[in-house]
Design a protein that fits this description.
Chain A: This is Thioredoxin reductase. The complex is a heterodimer of chains A (412) and B (482). Chain A is of the alpha/beta class and 412 residues long. Chain A is 18% helix and 34% strand. Chain B has 482 residues and is α/β, with parallel strands linked by helices. Classes of the chains: A alpha/beta (412), B alpha/beta (482). The complex binds flavin-adenine dinucleotide (FAD) (2 copies).
Chain lengths: 412, 482
């Protein structure tokens, strides 16, 4: 759908590289490209401050600085912004990319007016979001006090850790490290955490002192005006009501793929991110995608590494290199949820990122092309549904780039 | 003109009104607006903290033609007139409407056989432009329909509209034309009297010569306050799913079910916000507060919707909600004048009240005259031009001129719905400012998108809590802004 532009219209500009999203992935891509002399590298960030999700994670867990001291999320974000600026990239905040005016031209809304920015290459790094209550089809009333971790974190960042902006007694839905982060954030704000409700057969992490209901689902939200409780069906099939004025739905990520879809680029069915090859190329020549946009949440360091890695293919493109016609599709079969990249392009053998649907103890993984197994190996450890595993380049070394689809499968 | 939400109600002469309308849904607000044309003292009283907070906020948002109404009923006439009146008013007041037209899709032989009869009924209701489509033409018009669609009846003129802006436009225009709006003000007792009835609330007592009951689901309970027991309202719940905007390209018309032996079926309709809606269920209940959704209800809708438009189910759901229709066991409205009581009941406004609202209001003016109201000479209403929430019309974030005048309109706060800080601030200083975040959402769409506040929730809340800022007027929005 094209949207009307009224009065005066938009200013048209051109840049060499336009990066959409100033999170870890977008900023590291911009830093690397600006340093490599890609020309004008501009990053658009719709929030008032650049840095992406780590800005709201006020605790260590984001690698270390040059002296080996653990970095908090905000410190990590500031460093990423600094590095992009120092390399010569322009980082613009409060500026939103809202659609496409051409294959490599974005529609932009900024306080200074409307723009159309044409780029030699566009790098999409728009991140991901958690599915809210509605997308999870949780029935019941529509009271206040129903949050995602993202909104919880931002509320604390905006108003401080105070119960009056959150609630007094919360239930956290989810069982992985993000849920643990939510529990910590709530407790630090003085909110009593009544329980963690997880669909997992056993929780992924420890929730010091908080009762965990395993194999359980939220069947109804209760309360008018303000949440008064949630109905939960436990692993034993019995339904009970937990009194609470706040519920935080955590995890269950979906890529923020609006620009991908507005462009008509194909989605990877397993991840709902754009299909890319190992050079992060989408189906549109000159458009790349990196970071959580590809598949939901991975650690910031993974997203940042993708940002750095995209630089090579972007520079090739800017130098007039050809856009590969297509690649060999790669797909995962159950009990694996997804594998990325979704395409193997002209580059040499590449590593794959694989996510299981459920816990798999020492599984045997098989890579098959056209029905013929290329590699079959037992993994040493345990795969868990909230963490991806990287399969090294040797797993794809035998792939015939002129051949048919590649499948990754697993057996316990 | 004033809007009150807290504190004692006016006393003395200020508490005396010519007409009080109780219930600020779409119907009561339309009636108050119609009365505001006359030199009368009018009050609109509402139990909730906002206008349009009952059934009027939770419906399927279709501006019906009335093609399928029971011919000869009051409802049939008021829906037909209301469609015309609201269509014209929407253009004037800036309420988004999209005249998409409807297709009643037949999925089996029995349904197909029903279509010509529906066309005849439409004709008896004054709609002569319906047309039968064969399977091939239907497939060309709606390429994403599931397998098995045999044909359809096309009904031009069926439109989608913004229900929130409609109620708010009526109430805003009423207030700006002199009506007092008292929110958080449930009428708990009525002491009939002459020349004044006394209306008792927890915030004080108002007195009025004439009284209008526009209490929606509670119209029977309100009737009981004045000693009338003419009908009982049975809430009929309708659950709905709203799909993300990526679904919008899957459907071009309002897809209506063909009524049949197996009940009414569900509809799939675009919304003016660019989403796609699936529903409603029809469940008779006892509880007039049961606006929750149920697992069975949502699963049933998905099953039916998946047959009509299979690709719909691949998209994310951005909202689940339910509304309650005011059923009274009669296939018509229950609108009655009680001249001895100087009282008009506007009840049983079932599933067409949004469409019929302006025509109901005109009808009620006539009934008030039967009850002894002499309204005096009419004068023009204060103009309103509502902020546009519709995707088919220019929105502020794409309006270069507006952004050049005020950069706040170039600062997007709610990214999914592209709501700017300028729009939020304008809503906070509008004639009827929102009473909470839900009211703000209905005025701006902020927090109403696919992330439901994941990204913007805290920021929107901060703007709301900061409240109206000095020196900012809604005038920047454009002429006649609310
Ligand atoms: C609760 C939580 C805890 C975490 N804890 C850790 C941890 O301890 N350690 C760790 O390493 N990782 C952690 N992570 C993961 C890490 O934060 C993310 O992996 C990382 O931020 C991903 O980077 P990104 O650049 O892909 O996306 P994001 O950080 O989400 O950045 C995307 C940016 O794009 C912007 N954007 C989107 N659309 C547009 C548009 N149209 N126009 C302009 N701008 C746009 C967004 O505003 C955002 O700033 C955590 C994540 C969460 C949610
Ligand atoms: C699922 C569904 C789908 C629908 N789809 C459509 C459609 O597509 N098109 C269409 O035209 N119509 C539709 N309708 C019908 C339409 O929504 C209603 O007819 C209309 O909203 C009724 O408006 P109202 O003002 O009568 O009632 P309400 O909106 O319920 O307003 C009544 C108000 O009175 C107040 N009140 C009650 N008692 C008191 C008291 N004692 N003191 C003070 N205030 C009081 C209540 O708080 C409430 O705000 C649909 C309805 C439903 C439920």
């Amino acid at each position: 759908m094209t949207r009307a532009v009224r009065g005066g219209g938009a200013v048209t500009r051109a840049v060499d590289v336009l990066v959409v999203g100033a999170g870890p992935a977008g900023l590291s891509a911009a830093a690397r490209l600006a340093a490599a002399g890609a020309g004008r590298v501009e990053v658009l960030e719709r929030e008032a401050t650049a840095g992406g999700v780590p800005r709201h994670c006020a605790r260590p867990g984001f690698g270390a600085d040059a002296l080996g001291r653990a970095l908090t999320g905000p410190a990590y974000a500031r460093r990423a912004v600094r590095e992009a600026l120092r390399a010569g990239a322009a980082v613009r905040t409060g500026v939103s990319a809202t659609g496409w005016a051409g294959p490599l031209t974005l529609e932009v809304t900024a306080p200074t007016g409307l723009e159309r920015i044409r780029a030699g290459a566009v790098v999409l790094a728009t991140g991901a979001r958690e599915r809210p209550r509605s997308a999870r089809l949780v029935p019941g009333t529509r009271p206040a006090g129903v949050l995602t971790t993202g909104e919880l974190q931002r509320t604390v960042a905006r108003f401080g850790p105070r119960t009056e902006h959150i609630g007094r007694r919360a239930v956290v839905v989810g069982g992985d490290p993000v849920a643990r982060g939510a529990v910590r954030t709530l407790r630090a704000a003085g909110v009593d955490v009544a329980a963690v409700v997880t669909g997992l057969p056993s929780p992924a992490v420890a929730f010091a002192g908080v009762p965990v209901l395993v194999g359980a689902v939220v069947t109804e939200l209760l309360g008018r005006g303000r949440l008064s409780g949630i109905a939960v069906r436990g692993g034993d099939g019995r339904t009970s009501v937990l009194r609470c004025d706040t519920v935080v739905f955590t995890g269950d990520w979906i890529p923020d793929h609006e620009l991908v879809r507005a462009h008509g680029l194909p989605l990877h069915p397993g991840t709902r991110g754009p299909v890319t090859d190992q050079g992060f190329r989408t189906a549109e020549p000159g458009v790349f995608a990196v970071g959580n946009l590809l598949r939901g949440v991975e650690p910031a360091l993974v997203a940042a590494a993708e940002g750095r890695a995209v630089a090579r293919a972007v520079l090739e493109r800017l130098a007039g290199g050809p856009w590969p016609a297509s690649g060999v599709p790669v797909a995962a079969t159950a009990p694996l949820r997804w594998v990325t990249p979704g395409l193997l392009g002209p580059e040499a053998a590449t590593s794959l990122l694989v996510r299981p649907e459920r816990r798999l103890v020492r599984p045997v993984l098989t890579v098959t092309q056209d029905g013929a197994p290329l590699r079959r190996e037992r993994l040493g450890g345990t795969l868990v549904p909230w963490r991806s595993v990287r399969l090294g380049a040797r797993w794809t070394s035998g792939v015939d780039l002129a051949g048919g689809p590649v499948t990754v499968s697993a057996e316990e | 003109m004033s809007v009150t939400r807290t504190g004692p109600l006016p006393t003395g002469e200020a508490s005396e009104y010519d007409v009080v309308v109780v219930g600020a849904g779409v119907v009561g607000s339309a009636i108050a607006r119609a009365l505001a044309r006359y030199p009368l003292r009018i009050a609109l009283m509402e139990a909730a903290n906002d206008v349009g907070d009952g059934t009027s906020k939770a419906n399927t948002a279709i501006l019906h033609t009335g093609f399928d109404a029971a011919p000869g009923t009051l409802e049939a006439r008021l829906v037909r007139e209301g469609h015309r009146l609201l269509g014209a008013y929407a253009r004037e007041a800036g309420i988004p409407v999209e005249p998409l037209g409807a297709l009643l899709v037949a999925w089996d032989e029995e349904q197909r056989a029903t279509l010509p009869r529906l066309a005849e009924k439409a004709e008896r209701n004054g709609h002569r432009t319906t047309r039968l489509l064969g399977a091939t033409e239907l497939a060309a018009r709606e390429p994403h329909l599931g397998p098995g669609a045999l044909g359809a009846l096309e009904v031009p003129g069926e439109s989608v509209i913004c229900p929130w802006t409609t109620t708010l436009a009526y109430a805003t225009q009423a207030v700006r034309s002199g009506v007092d709006l008292h929110l958080n003000c449930r009428v708990e007792k009525v002491r009939p009297g002459d020349p004044y009835h006394r209306l008792v609330t927890r915030r004080g007592v108002l007195r009025t010569r004439l009284l209008v009951n526009a209490c929606g689901l509670h119209a029977d309970a309100f009737d009981a306050l004045v000693g009338r027991e003419d009908f009982t309202v049975t809430p009929r719940r309708g659950q709905l799913l709203v799909f993300d905007k990526f679904a919008r390209d899957l459907v071009r018309h309002i897809l209506l079910p063909v009524p049949g032996a197996l009940g009414k079926g569900v509809l799939i309709s675009p919304t003016v916000y660019g989403n796609v809606m699936l529903g409603p269920t029809a469940e008779d209940l006892d509880d007039k507060t049961a606006t929750g959704t149920t697992a069975e209800g949502l699963a049933g809708l998905r099953e039916q919707g998946g047959r009509i438009l299979p690709a719909l189910l691949d998209e994310e759901v951005t909202a689940v909600y339910a509304g309650l229709r005011a059923a009274t066991g009669q296939e018509d409205y229950r609108i009655a004048a009680h001249p001895a009581l100087r009282y008009v009941t506007v009840g049983g406004i079932r599933s067409t009240g949004l469409t019929a609202s302006l025509a109901i209001a005109e009808h009620v003016l006539g009934l008030l005259a039967d009850c002894g109201l002499d309204p005096g000479p009419a004068r023009p209403l204060a103009p309103v031009r509502m902020p546009n929430l519709g995707e088919a019309f220019p929105r502020p974030y794409r309006d270069a001129e507006l952004i050049a005048r005020d950069p706040e309109f170039g600062t997007i706060v709610c990214h999914c719905e592209r709501v700017t800080r300028g729009e939020i601030r304008a809503a906070l200083v509008s004639t009827i400012p929102p009473g909470g975040l839900d009211g703000l959402r209905r005025r701006t769409r902020a927090r109403g998108g696919r992330c439901q506040g994941h990204h913007c929730g805290a920021e929107v809340r901060a703007l709301f809590e900061e409240g109206p800022r000095e020196g900012r007027s809604a005038g920047r929005y454009g002429k006649g802004a609310p």
